[in-house]
Amino acid sequence: MSASPSKPSRARSAAPRDAYHHGALREALLEAAEGLLAERGLEGFSLREVARRSGVSPAAPAHHFGDAHGLLTAVAIQAFDGLREALEAGNARGGDDPIARLREQGLGYVGFALRHPGRFGLMFRCEDNHDAQLRQSGRAAYGVLEDGMRALYRLPPQAPLSATQLQGLLAVWSVVHGFAHLQLAHQLDDALQGAPRESVLRDTLAPLLEQQLRGLAADLPQG
């Protein structure tokens, strides 16, 4: 005799809830949180909706992260770690040329933002978060850019930046950060005439950064 069709159906519906291992559930909750942030922003975020999207009970996110603040902190840490990796990958693409390394860092920065709008929208809204791991991850990401500017200015590792050199760093950061936000808000669509993302980065942002960085390097003493 064949099995009743209702029994497999109940088993399938329970599977997503029961199949998670501890680490898999944590990652699923982080992914759901990022998707919700990308769609609704911080104002529309809730643990209940994250749980619903993950197919688990409303208590599951609290079990892993404590509360909404804990889950958002985990997403922000993930974001800064991912940004650091994107900047380091830019360094690798740029090779030994300080200008090329910073240019590729900039492309990596914007590329990360476009791939992960939920994370990117959150990570710079955590100024009142004093979590030690979050602060460490944020400093590590910023440190990659800072080291890139030290190389451009021919400074040894850990050397302090002068006021003028810090202004150069902030100018480069402001360009890529602003470019990312403008693209995410579709404010550049008309100007760029719907060009594909990769060509926008290579054909528009890369030359812009190259020009800016060469201008900064031109002020260095020669020899």
UniProtKB/TrEMBL annotation:
List the InterPro entries.
Answer: Homeodomain-like_sf, HTH-type_TetR-like_transc_reg, HTH_TetR, MT1864/Rv1816-like_C, Tet_transcr_reg_TetR-rel_C_sf
Query: Known PROSITE patterns for this protein?
Result: HTH_TETR_2
Q: Provide the HTH tetR-type domain boundaries.
A: 23-83
Keywords, sorted A to Z: DNA-binding, Transcription, Transcription regulation
Q: Which Gene3D superfamilies does the UniProt entry name for this protein?
A: Tetracycline Repressor, domain 2
Instruction: Report if keyword Transferase is assigned.
Output: no
Q: Which Pfam families match?
A: TetR_C_33 (PF13305), TetR_N (PF00440)
The entry lists its GO molecular-function terms as: DNA-binding transcription factor activity; transcription cis-regulatory region binding
Question: What SUPFAM superfamilies does UniProt report for this protein, alphabetically?
Answer: Homeodomain-like (SSF46689), Tetracyclin repressor-like, C-terminal domain (SSF48498)
- Write down the DNA-binding region ranges: 46-65
Know the name of this protein?
TetR family transcriptional regulator
